[in-house]
Every structure is written in C-alpha cells, then in structure tokens.
Amino acid sequence: MRPDPDTVRGWLGEVPDPEIPAISVVDLGIVRDVGWENDTLVVDVTPTYAGCPATLVIALDIETALRDRGIDKIEVRRRMSPPWSTDWITDEGRQKLLDYGIAPPQLNAANCAGMLSAQSAACPLCGSENTEAIAARGSTPCKAQFRCRDCREPFDYFKAI
Amino acid sequence: MDPLVTFCLRMGDTTLILGQQTAAWCGHAPVLEEDIAFANMGLDLIGQTQLWYEIAAQAEGKGRTPDDLAFFRTERQFLNAQLVERPNTDFAHALMRQYLFDAWHLPMQEALCESGHEAIRDLAQKSVKEVRYHIDRSRDLIVRLGDGSDESRAKMQGALDALWPYAADLMATDEVEETLVAQGVLPGLDRVRTAFEAETAATMSRATLEIPGNGHARIGGRTGIHTETMGYILAEMQQVPRSFPDARW
Do the beta carbons of residue A105 and residue A89 sit within 8 Å? Predict the structure, then answer.
C-alpha cells in the first residue's frame, strides 16, 4: 500500500502541535513536502524557532501517526531553507488559534517581524482592537503577552516572524 | 584546526554560554514577564548553538555530536567571546550583557545571510528573524531603565562601565575570519563593527547613559583565553554528562 501524498497530508492534518494542540502541524505550515523515495515515505518538516523544544516531539508524533496508518518505512527530514514564517499558517489554522484564545499573527511577517510595536492584535475574547502589549515573550518563544483595555482580560498573541 | 570549524565554534560557543547564563534567570528575574523572556531567549540561543555545532561537527568529520562539543571540551577549547561569560551579577548586568551581545549579533547574522556557505546562510536566515526580536526587547529595556529613576540609571551605567571593555571581544577577528573571507565563506565583517557602534551610540544616548571613553578593551575568548567565571559555568553545565557520559534519555 502506497497512499498518495495528498492522503498523507490529510492524515498529518490531524497531528496536533504539541505546544498548541488546537492546531495541526499542517495548519502551522511546517510540513513542507511529502513524497515517496522508493519504499520510504519522506516528510520534510521545517522547524519553527531554532530552539523550539516541540521540534523533536513533532517529528516523533508525525512518525507515530503514520505508523498507526500502516506505513512502515518513514523518514522525517529537517528542512532549513527557506526559513519558516508565520505567513505559512493556514487560514484554517488562524481561525483555530482565535477560537482557542490566541490572537493569530498578522500577515506579511516581513513588514512587522522583529518589532512588537509594529504589530497590533484584536482581543480574541471580545474582539476589541483596543489592546496593548505587556511583554514581548509569552508562554512560549513564539508568543507575546497582550491585555485588552475593554474586557480587561490578558491574552497571548502569536508574533509574526 | 580548519578555519570553518574554528569560526563555527566561536559562534556556537558564544550563543551556548550566553544561553546557559540567561537560562539561570529562570525563577529569579525581578518580574514574571522578564523571567519568561530570559528563559525563552536562552532557548533561542541554545537552538542556534545546535545549528552551529552541527556545521562544525560535519566540517570536522570526526564523528563528534553537538552534545560532545558542548559537554566534553575544556575551558581552553571554548572559543566564546568573554562578554557572555561575565557573571549574572544583577538584572542590570544581565540586561546590558544581553543588549551588547544583541547589538553585535544582529548585524553579524545579517552579514551571514550573504555567506557563500549554504548551511551558514540557511542558519543565518533563520536566526536573524529571532535575533530581531531579541534586540527589540533588550534595547527597549536599556532605554527605559537607563532613562528611568536615579537608582535604575546608576545601575545601568555601572553595568555599562563594567561590560563595555568586553564588547571588543565580540568583534575580535584574526586569520581565521580573514581566511574565510578570502574563500568567500564569509562576507566582509567591517560593517558589523560599524553597525554595532551606530546602534550602541544611538541607544545609549536615548538611555542617557555614557559609553566609557577610556579605550579599555579585553579580548582573548576567541582563542580560548577566558576570565575567572568561565570554569564555574562549565562545571555547572557539564557536570551531569561528565558524571554519566553514556547516559541516554
């Protein structure tokens, strides 16, 4: 049995990101390529942040999910170039982040990445745009901490990078 | 040693030792947000170290792993800039050390994005995006605490006076870099110093801090000469793997 790459992508769409289980590794945009090399299924994955501790777990989770589908020979490869960007998070992934309570990153990472002051986030709870950044780092390296000035709730913002 | 290996160790050792020092703030920083920020930046730096050590290990071709390079070399074999091994005296020192490092690291990574070596170029194009966030935070805090209360300003000025002489070690180059520039592996690095000087001058001016003008400079880390703090850092960082060298997760 050698399922086609689109079928495999569909399966990977059910593998959650270990840090933010609301979205899948496909939603996150880190699955760069899926294909067969002889009898081995090769999945190219690009790391988010160089030091993201989830990276090793992601490779293991992908391998486990494919084994559960009956694939024996699997190789998860790390692809460094081009570097991952939050622009690759799918529209579906952005909606899932929002539903989970995390404000999704602005598009066009190239324009706002590296400067939190260039980015604004609407409150994922009440929708207000009257928000302020509290800290450049949140519960993980990829997030910043914001506060809504209207409903007064703190929330995480997924930084554009 | 192959100049490429030496250069990768100079870069990777610098990010590793700063990552180790930064991680030590976990649970100790003055406010929760900064505690989390330091811990997360330490993660970024250690992740970048892994990439540098992979390139070094591959170029060296002796079958060493990144963990071997981190945990089984001695003080004289570490080639980090002396700045990053200066102690976590207080939050002002840790922050100033981070800012001076960032002010060098960003233009260095920007320059390396044009490297003729594919793996170094890939590393830089990834890291530079993280490093932009690092300096965004450290610059903001230098200005807020420098141009802050009398006490915060005095602490920041004290940290700048103590650490400025070590900034020279970040930019110290020798025949290793010259060889790599000649080979096209590295672009010219003069612009890194120019960018560092412009960045620090502008930020210290906004922070109402004065850069020491006495010209003192401490160098030597790039050739394995370290300050009195280095042995203690390595002892803490290497103790477990050296005690149990065959242990596996």
Answer: yes
Of the residues B36, B110, B123, B142, the best mutation for testing chain A's interface (the one with the most A CB atoms within 10 Å of its CB) is B36
ω before A82 within 30° of 0 (cis)? yes
User: Does residue B19 surpass a pLDDT of 90?
Assistant: yes
How far apart, in whole angstroms, are the C-alpha atoms of residue B40 and residue B23? 8
In sequence order, the 6+-apart residues with CB closer than 8 A to the CB of A155 are A101, A102, A103, A121, A123, A124, A125, A131, A145, A146, A147, A148
Q: Does the N-terminal peptide bond of residue A83 adopt cis geometry, omega within 30 degrees of 0?
A: no
What span, in angstroms and rounded, lies between the C-alpha atoms of B96 and B88? Answer: 10
- Looking at the complex, report in whole angstroms how far the Cα of residue A140 sits from the nearest Cα belonging to chain B: 7
Q: Which domain holds residue A54?
A: 5-78
Q: Let me know whether A52 and A100 are in one domain.
A: no
C-alpha span between A110 and B70 (Å, rounded)? 33
Q: Is the pLDDT of residue B246 over 90?
A: no
Residues in chain A: 161
Give a yes or no: residue A85 inside a domain. Answer: no
Q: Does A38 share its domain with A9? A: yes
For residue A113, the model assigns a pLDDT of: 77
Distance CA B209, CA A135 (A): 24
DSSP A33: E
- Specify the pTM: 0.94
CATH number at residue A66: 3.30.300.130
Rounded to the nearest angstrom, the minimum Cα separation between A110 and chain B is 9
Q: Do the domain assignments include residue A102?
A: yes
Whole-number Å distance between alpha carbons of B123 and B144: 32
The dihedral through the CA atoms of B238, B42, B33, B140 has a sign that is: positive
Residue A86 lies in a domain: no
Residues of chain B positioned with their CB less than 8 A from the CB of A116: 133, 136
Are A39 and A95 in a shared domain? Answer: no
A65 shares a domain with A17: yes
ipTM for the predicted complex: 0.89
Same domain, A13 and A68: yes
Q: Do A18 and A62 belong to one domain?
A: yes
Q: Which CATH architecture has domain B3-243?
A: Up-down Bundle (1.20)
Does residue B161 sit at the A interface (CB-CB below 8 Å)?
no
